[in-house]
């Protein structure tokens, strides 16, 4: 009998076909994310879960799923999954690194240009019928070319943003978790500095770290106070990397000039949220990887990870390969 899997949203037909070759599929077909209670009920007899970053796969979910062997998320960030709990239960976790790097870097750069040059404000002005004449001081923004970009987290996406910034003749500062070798810094035309120096010197600060206990609220009031009053913050990482209340205050009080956000905390933002009242804050709904081609690749990559896990193999893009050893021990223990 084929193992049963839960897909927490509709996937493209070729992806579904790939999964159905090895599994019986139960799919959440509503447009809204699967409610928590439904998730808890539907995982009880499944061996695999194909999920999205809106699904919290925590200890409670894992404990409800005694047969679970693989969790595959259609995202590179896996902060919505309790990986430690999965590992201790021999459950492998797959994600989608690399395939969305360039698309997400494109969006980070789009937000950078939009905020620096006030594109959204200016477009709204035209649509509102307010464009009467050319004016020398209309929507004055900041130059991107020649500005200093501070990249926080020099992983796949951080590096892809740096490549784009070189084309704009930007000076690039990087704050990273480990010391980057001098030849890497030279080759990438960057200078590694400590986080505080980056905040003080950058005209644009762009976040590319994963959400972990140590990056939660990496930017709060003290950090905003260190930034230039003309500085722009770009966040395409995760909402909680920034303290939302402190960000609102910093933008409202003009401690910094603007922010471009693809991710927020909470997410989605409720319609009455104060951030939405600020003209100097451009917000888009977590569309970093949202090109047709990239989302197709991510969906198939997540299917490959799921299928490998169901076949007892380590997923090609596995967050916790050590879970394989735990699984072997559990299997040996059960058969002895
Ligand atoms: P990645 O290659 O793992 O890069 C993240 C880098 O940040 C790693 O090299 C990591 O170093 C470093 N880092 C961790 N903590 C740090 C800190 N406190 N200060 C400086 N650097 C730190 O991941 P990625 O593929 O670039 O993706 C990064 C994140 O972007 C994902 O985790 C996800 O949350 C987000 N993302 C968002 C979208 C979107 O749609 N908006 C799309 C894709 C990704 P170590 O490995 O040494 O810890
Ligand atoms: C999107 O946010 C991802 O982590 O893939």
Please state the CA-atom Rg, rounded to the nearest Å: 22 Å
User: How would you spell out the order of helices and strands?
Assistant: EHEHEHEHEHHEHEHEHEHEHEEHH
* Order of adjacent strands in the largest pleated sheet: 8-7-6-9-10-11-12
Strand-pairing-aware structural class: alpha/beta
DSSP helix fraction? 25-40%
**Segments where pLDDT lies below 50 for 5+ residues?**
none
Kindly report the name of the CATH homologous superfamily of the largest domain. Answer: NAD(P)-binding Rossmann-like Domain
Global shape? globular
Average pLDDT score? 97
Q: Which hetero ligands occur in this complex?
A: NADP nicotinamide-adenine-dinucleotide phosphate, glyoxylic acid
Q: Quickly give the CATH architecture of the largest domain.
A: 3-Layer(aba) Sandwich
| Beginning-to-end CA distance, first to last residue | 23 Å
Can you tell me the number of structural domains?
2
What would CATH call the class of the largest domain? Alpha Beta
Q: How many H/I helices?
A: 13
> How many β-strand runs?
12
User: How big a fraction of the residues is strand?
Assistant: 5-15%
The CATH topology of the largest domain is given as Rossmann fold
Main β-sheet description:
7 strands, parallel
Structure description:
- The chain has 336 residues and is an alpha/beta fold.
- It has two domains: 4-98 and 292-335, Rossmann fold (3-Layer(aba) Sandwich), CATH 3.40.50.720; 101-283, NAD(P)-binding Rossmann-like Domain (Rossmann fold, 3-Layer(aba) Sandwich), CATH 3.40.50.720.
- The protein contains 13 helices and twelve strands.
- A seven-stranded parallel beta sheet has the order 8-7-6-9-10-11-12, sandwiched between helices. A five-stranded parallel beta sheet has the order 2-1-3-4-5.
- Helix 1 links the parallel strand 1 and strand 2 (24-27).
- Helix 1 (13-20) packs parallel to helix 12 and helix 5 (101-116) crosses helix 7.
- The protein is globular and about 80 Å long.
- Bound molecules: NADP nicotinamide-adenine-dinucleotide phosphate and glyoxylic acid (GLV).
- Residues 76-77, 97, 100-101, 104, 152-153, 155-158, 175-178, 208-211, 214-215, 236-238, 262-263, 286, 288-289 line the site of NADP nicotinamide-adenine-dinucleotide phosphate (NAP).
- Residues 76-77, 97, 100-101, 104, 152-153, 155-158, 175-178, 208-211, 214-215, 236-238, 262-263, 286, 288-289 line the site of NADP nicotinamide-adenine-dinucleotide phosphate.
């Amino acid at each position: 009998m084929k193992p049963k899997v839960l897909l927490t949203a509709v996937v493209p037909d070729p992806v579904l076909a790939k999964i159905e070759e090895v599994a019986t599929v139960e799919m959440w077909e509503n447009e809204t994310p699967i409610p928590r209670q439904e998730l808890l009920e539907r995982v009880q007899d499944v061996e695999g879960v194909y999920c999205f970053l809106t699904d919290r796969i925590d200890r409670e979910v894992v404990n409800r799923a005694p047969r679970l062997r693989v969790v595959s998320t259609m995202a590179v960030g896996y902060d919505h999954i309790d990986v430690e709990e999965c590992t201790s239960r021999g459950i492998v976790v797959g994600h989608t690194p690399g395939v969305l790097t360039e698309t997400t870097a494109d969006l980070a750069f789009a937000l950078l240009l939009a905020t620096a040059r006030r594109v959204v404000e200016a477009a709204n002005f035209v649509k509102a019928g307010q464009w009467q004449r050319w004016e020398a001081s209309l929507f004055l923004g900041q130059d991107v070319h020649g500005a200093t970009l501070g990249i926080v987290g020099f992983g796949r996406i951080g590096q892809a943003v740096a490549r784009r910034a070189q084309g704009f003749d930007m000076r690039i500062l990087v704050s990273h978790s480990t010391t980057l070798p001098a030849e890497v810094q030279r080759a990438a035309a960057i200078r590694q500095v400590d986080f505080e120096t980056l905040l003080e010197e950058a005209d644009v600060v762009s976040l590319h770290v994963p959400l972990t206990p140590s990056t939660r609220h990496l930017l709060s009031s003290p950090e905003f106070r260190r930034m230039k009053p003309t500085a722009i913050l770009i966040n395409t990482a995760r909402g909680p990397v920034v303290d939302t209340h402190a960000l609102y205050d910093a933008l409202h009080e003009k401690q910094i000039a603007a922010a471009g956000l693809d991710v927020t905390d909470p997410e989605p933002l409720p319609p009455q949220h104060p951030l939405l009242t600020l003209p100097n804050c451009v917000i888009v709904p977590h569309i970093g990887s949202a090109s047709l081609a990239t989302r197709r690749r991510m969906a198939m990559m997540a299917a490959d990870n799921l299928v490998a896990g169901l076949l007892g193999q380590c997923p090609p893009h596995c967050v916790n390969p050590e879970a394989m050893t735990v699984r072997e021990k559990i299997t040996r223990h059960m058969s002895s």
